[in-house]
Amino acid sequence: MASRNGVVFEDFFPAMVERLGAEGFMTELCNGFRLLMDGDKGVITFESLKRNSAMLGLQNLSDEELRSMVTEGDLDGDGALNQMEFCILMFRLSPGLMTTSRQWLEEAILNGF
Known about the structure:
Helices cover 60% and strands 5% of the residues. The chain is mainly α.
């Protein structure tokens, strides 16, 4: 289990990659982004994360914890997460993914992306 900003979660991502392959896993990450995003804005905002957090079992997180999640992944400073920022944040939060990222790169190159 990993802890980030007081939120504890079990890292299932490496097992998902093993089962789905790199391409399938990236598709699932994109699906997760769409699930959490504000449909009108096309990004994950604090409000959309709060509204949809129960789908991830995060309904007990405080507003401060949810804001912290958005802030941590917000690389361009616009107060929201675009799809790339979301994927980067998910990779950063998964130690298992970070250690196997070289293998994914090699797989992607062999498969021609």
